[in-house]
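Example 3.2
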Amino acid sequence: MISSTHRLIVVSNRLPFVLTRRSDKTSRLEPASGGLVTALAPVLRDRGGVWIGWPGQAVDIPELPGLLEDASDLAGYQFVPVALTAEEHENYYNGYANESLWPLFHDLQSQCRFHPDYWKAYATVNGHFAGAILEQACAGDFVWVHDYHLMGVADILRKCGRDNPLAFFLHVPFPPLDIFIKLPERHKLLGMLLHYDLIGLQTQRDRRNFIHCVRALAPGAHISHRGNLHTIRLGERQVNVGAFPIGIDFKGFADHTASEEVATRAWHIHENFPERQIVFGLDRLDYTKGIPHRLEAFRNLLKRYPELHERINLVQVVVPSRVGIPKYDALKREIERLVGEINGQFTRSGWIPVHYIFRSLERTELLAWYRTAEIALVTPLKDGMNLVSKEFCASSIEENAVLILSQFAGAAAQLKRGALLVNPYDVEQTADAIRQAFYMPPEERRARMRQMRRNVRHQDIYWWVDYFIESAIGKELKDFPIQEEYIPENLQPLDSAAPAALEPIDTH
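Structure, written as tokens:
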């Protein structure tokens, strides 16, 4: 155990890198992408805190301690691994987290699968994470646990007698009562959550849903409201609940987008789409992202407005996720079928309407697409926040682009005055929004984008962290001192080459 106090200890399902095996059977660490990584790496960097998580492999890797030590020195904070067996990972992560909680919390209960072994593994793995915290945390350390994978950690820590300030942030939506009660373990899970000191949710909608569930399922709970926080009292226990919409590193995105490297890439993209407007979509492969609905909307646009033929292109990037799982393989096939049908029906000499990319984009390439695209199409069926929409705004440095955003994304609450909001299930409405964006006058584009950029700039990642930590323990980010000696000047932070955030870790 490290003897220092008043550190920030971050706990998430994954450490902020991917552990890969080379052909020679040696291992290496590669920077990870994802909303949580992008959000917290700039905060922990240089501050000497601790990040606890699963390293990404269920097998014993002898060189892992050395790799983690090198990565910690490079990043400026300590990485602590939590070991899981292959069976634990399968039932906890692929099972309970992503077949039970993920679809349920996204209002897609028809996709849910509940199995008693899933819940047992979930409770066991939460115990493993709690054990790692017990080994690392000193008195005065602030423990910040993230996302739906680890909702039971606080309950275990309290039973072990730990009184550290414990906070939890949920990156995905919290469902309404009529959906949450479909979870067999609803009472147990809610009771576990109520052992945190602060529970943070993305939006006011999520907070209302959570409070409604507490009123219905936690007898004896007394709830009061002051400012942004609801206070729940259960006997001697007090839990605060608030909405804390996560932000991005606005300056980092804007500055990098303005670089000569990105400008050159953007110019090459522009040359490949002469006198056409680019509609850009970027999503991880997941059924919550509404990619088939989006493709159907674009097909509807081309059917109803033939004057847009050869004047517009949809560029859809899909980042691989959970390859080999039947449900996701089927989604990939459906997307490819729709792309093929649309291109087969509408392609003309010199014009292919849909450009489909199935891979991750490195950061410079991604920012070049953000900077070049005239329209972003961000239409998830449900999302806790959706950082792609905010990244697009930060990267639209010429302020001449339009954001079309799902009304069911958490970001809609902040960006609704500048974005064109749509119901992603309504393909005609989405098609009409694309047409509206295509013909939108430059003055209106600038006014809308400037308003969104002001919002994203003000409520950035540093605002989010300050707001959350101050609500939890009355401290700000500056109260966790910078330790400059952690990073040599000639080295880059671990995540400097990471792609921009795609979505919260499933989320990451």
